[in-house]
Design goal:
Length: 118
């Protein structure tokens, strides 16, 4: 597993994270994986993505194989303003897109200042 920066570690395909339209968007390359082979979890303040490709059972002799098999793992610390309850994930054409909306910031209100001594 390689750590790209503080709080971001990956083993597998390329990854890209960005901020767009009030959300954090993570794109991970997971070529050849189906939806049932990928799990996305939130553990405390960390996003964890795991994928696994297993070798298919074959009969006969395999002369050459270039198909990738094994596991892919990706972990990223979620920003403080991420809304972990509304995270969505979509796998399309070998790219997993995880969208984490920003939490709606609270409205501000004015606090009255009082004094015991006028």
């Amino acid at each position: 597993m390689r750590c790209v920066s503080a709080g971001v570690c990956a083993r597998g395909g390329a990854a890209r994270s960005a901020e767009a339209r009030g959300a954090y968007v993570l794109g991970l390359e997971l070529p050849g994986l189906r939806r049932d082979q990928v799990t996305v979890e939130v553990l405390d303040a960390e996003l964890a993505v795991h994928g696994e490709t297993r070798e298919k059972e074959r009969t006969g002799v395999v002369r050459r194989q270039t198909r990738r098999v094994g596991q892919s793992d990706y972990r990223m610390s979620l920003p403080a303003d991420a809304d972990a309850d509304r995270i969505s994930a979509d796998l399309s054409h070998g790219v997993l897109t995880v969208r984490t909306p920003r939490a709606v910031s609270g409205t501000s209100r004015r606090i009255e200042v009082t004094s015991r001594w006028a």
